[in-house]
Amino acid sequence: MDLAARLFRYLDRRYRLREPLEYQLNKRIPAHLNWTNCFGGITFVCFSVQALTGILLAFYYKATLAEAYTSVLRIMEEVPFGAFVRGLHAWTANVMIFMATLHLLKVFFISAYRPPREFTWVSGVLLFFVTVFFGFSGYLLPMNQLAYWATTVGTQIAGAFPLVGSYAQLFLLGGQDRGETLTRFYALHVLVLPAVIIILLAAHFSMIRRQGISEPL
Ligand code: HEM
User: Fold this and answer.
1) I need a labelling partner for 194 at 20 to 30 A (CA). Which of 10, 107, 127, 187 fits?
2) pLDDT confidence bin for 121, thresholds 50/70/90
3) Which domains, ranges and CATH numbers included, belong to the chain?
């Protein structure tokens, strides 16, 4: 018996893995599925690339007003494969938003939001907002002119919201003088949003696993 089989037997005797694993692996795929059903999966692949490249970038990025811009320059010019990893992170962010939009449109047009999948839809809408907010919060981090002015415009849009707008703007900027804005965006980008998206993805996937893919109308 090879090592993998022995390891599996060892774990199976302790945790009874065979039955649930066989159930998951032998699930039949409905005949009506087509390539458009890959949009959600591709969005998830993008998220996985984002997580991996984001962790690599965090090893070199410095989230202070004095060092953010120069640390990004260093990633681009000195760190081995730095420009490649940063490029992958930035481009996959765009592809992720694009694929999430395609996925949203697809499930909308096949009316997959109808009962019993209402909460899959609601978790999807939240996932969409979180994905866009990932992009927005990441945009400031290089601290170049584009980042600064894009954030100025973005937070002003938040500020124009009725009733809660001024609070949202103050929360995002972290105060009136903008000294804290970078720290706040970095904390949202690498701590808060990853935690929120993992919880939402777990909910999204477990509902899909439990209910299966919807039948055509
Ligand atoms: C990070 C973003 C997202 C990921 C990774 C994701 C992933 C997935 C995956 C893998 C599936 C199963 C395969 C498929 O039917 O495509 C799925 C199904 C579904 N998703 Fe998403 N999704 C995301 C965002 C959204 C958004 C924005 C919406 C809508 C607002 C949404 C609503 C749904 C619904 C209703 C289903 C069930 C489709 C059916 O049963 O036919 N998801 N999602």
Assistant:
1) 107
2) very high
3) 35-211 (1.20.810.10)
